[in-house]
Design goal:
- The chain is of the alpha/beta class and 241 residues long.
- Helices cover 36% and strands 14% of the residues.
- It has one domain.
- The protein is globular.
Length: 241
């Protein structure tokens, strides 16, 4: 992706639809970046205005204290109505519910896209703002698809995850390149990988880049590595009928 960086501003739509009246995000917030480009993918102010936020994007974390501060770390859900009562649902997941204490391995077990497929949603996809063109393409396809659609977007959070704000894009890429968060789409029960990683990175590269995983032992990391590899093989070998 780095070799295209210089050309990205020229390739992306110039229209800006995500224009909050005041700063709503922390520095380096990948969720704000994801929302901005989801709006670009939708491409129409009329469509965007019809959307409903289930957990509103409304206030800076730095302005909050106590329970309200924790609430802002919750995943955000945007629901865009389509024709014939169909809906495009987009989850901006900052992994607020991750058990990062080292006591468990819930981190990699969050399978909301799989739940959506099991529930019969005909268009399901994963995305990450580290891969902007893939994210925007899936938003466009999900909205145009004749049926309900669900897109699960991984949004690295510098404050909650414990990394420098300048590393948000890199952290998202590490999640994908280590197969912790594979990018794919399931359309009418047919699975296709959006990004293939010939030589996956070790999950420890991803974990060691974030303060939230500082208490994970080498043994636990090795166990997670094994499970991630198994899950990815299972994903790729699955033929959905």
């Amino acid at each position: 992706m780095e070799r295209f960086t210089v050309f990205v501003p020229k390739l992306l739509p110039r229209q800006e639809c995500f224009l909050p009246e005041s700063p709503h995000s922390c520095k380096g917030c990948a969720e704000a970046l994801a929302i901005r480009h989801v709006y670009k993918g939708l491409g129409s102010a009329d469509v965007i205005e019809k959307g409903e936020w289930k957990i509103p994007w409304k206030q800076s974390i730095s302005d909050l204290e106590g329970p309200a501060r924790r609430e802002m770390f919750l995943p955000t859900l945007l629901m865009i109505p389509k024709t014939e009562g169909r809906v495009l649902s987009i989850c901006f997941d900052n992994e607020a519910c991750t058990d990062n204490t080292g006591r468990g391995k819930r981190f990699w077990k969050k399978h909301m896209p799989a739940v959506a497929v099991a529930d019969g949603i005909p268009y399901v996809a994963t995305a990450c703002p580290s891969y902007l063109f893939d994210l925007m393409a899936k938003v466009k396809e999900g909205y145009r698809f004749q049926g309900d659609a669900y897109i699960h977007v991984l949004c690295p959070c510098p404050v909650g995850w414990g990394f420098e704000s300048s590393l948000s894009i890199k952290i998202g890429k590490l999640a994908v390149e280590s197969n912790l968060f594979p990018l794919y789409a399931v359309v009418q029960n047919r699975l296709s990988m959006s990004v293939e990683i010939p030589k996956p990175r070790l999950v420890k590269e991803y974990f060691r880049s974030q303060g939230r995983f500082k208490d994970l032992s080498d043994t636990v990391v090795a166990e997670i590595q094994c499970m991630v590899s198994q899950e990815y093989k299972k994903l790729k070998s699955t033929i959905l009928l």
